[in-house]
Amino acid sequence: MQRFAPFALDALLVVVFCAIGRRSHDEAVLTGLLTTVWPFAAGLLLGWALAVLAARGARFDATTLWPSGVAIWACTLVVGMALRAVSGQGVALSFVIVAGCVLALFLLGWRAAVRVLR
Q1: Helix 29-55 vs helix 70-86: angle between axes, to the nearest 10 degrees?
Q2: Phi, psi (5° rounding) for residue 27?
Q3: Which of 12, 73, 82, 110 is least crowded, fewest Cβ atoms below 10 Å from its Cβ?
């Protein structure tokens, strides 16, 4: 179970990011949450897959900032924005910047805290 904790935490933080965004724009959080979450969730899954594959047989540690955390964050952001664009959702530059910063804080922040505590 502990093996899946980093993924579960990342997934929870992506959902929280989307819920905060919907709430800050006075949109219904629960009824439209899936529409907002799915592009970023797909990016998160791809980022995790790439991070695991990049380990190439070495011991994969999902708690490291580099390369795991950065790959997961970058894929979540880039793929999430690309999927939002092709599905007709907003991808204004200001949103990309805010999303990049908040997702970095969420997805890299807990990894930095783990590193400091170790």
Answers
A1: 130
A2: -100, 155
A3: 12
